[in-house]
Amino acid sequence: MRHRMVGELMTSAVVCVRPDASFKEIARLLAEHDITSVPVLDDQDRPLGVVSEADLLRHEATVEDPAGLLPAPSLTDRDRARSLATTAQGLMSSPAVCARPEWTVVEAARLMDRRGCKRLVVVDEAGRRIGVVSRSDLLRVFLRHDPAIREEIRHDVLVKILGLSVDEIDVQVHEGQVTLAGTLEHRSVATALAGLCRGVDGVVSVTENLRYRSDDTLANRASAGQQLTAGHPGHR
Q: I want to staple 9 with a disulfide (CB 3.0 to 4.6 A). Which of 119, 137, 205, 215 is the partner?
C-alpha cells in the first residue's frame, strides 16, 4: 500500500517571520492570511519556534482588569516574560514542533495529538523549513473518492499483499466506510485483511462479513501454550 506522505500534503508557500518581527506585524500577518500561527526562522531558514494566536492573546490576558473585578492571573516567570515581549523572539513557543516530508499521515497526526498543536513545520535533512502541514492538510486523505479506495484494497491489499484474487472477496466502499464479504481459507487471513484495510488512506471504518474454512489461530495459540508450558521452570 502507498500511504500519502507529509511532503505531498504540506503547504510550501508559508508565511514566516524573523525573530525581530514586532507584535503588531505578527498580528497583522495572522489576520491578513487567515492563519493561526507563524514559524519563526533564523537567517538560514531553520525554525526557532512558533508564534500563535494564543501567544499573542497571552499579552491581553495578563493586563490588569480596569474594573478590578478579576484576580491577577498566576503566571510562571517564563509566561510572564513572554506576556511582556514585543517581538517574535520573546513571544514564540520554542522549540518548534517539526515533521519530515517522508512521514506518513499517521506519524504526523500522532505528533500533533501528543504535543497539542495544530500545525507542524516541515523541515529537510538540514533542518531548514520547506513547508507547513496542518490538521486540515492531514484530513485531505479522507477526501479520497470511494472508487480509488476500493481499487487500492482490491489490487494492493488483496492481490499484492495477501496473494488473493480480486474475485475472492467482495469489497464495497461508501463514504469511506468499507464492507468486506466472502469466504477465505484461514481465519488469520481474514483478520489480516480487515487490519490492512483500516490502514488504507481515506478509510473511515471497516465492517467484516467474512467467513473462513479453518481457524488456524487455534492451532497457533495451542502451539504457543505448549511452548510456554515446556519452558516453565516447574515443568518436568
A: 137
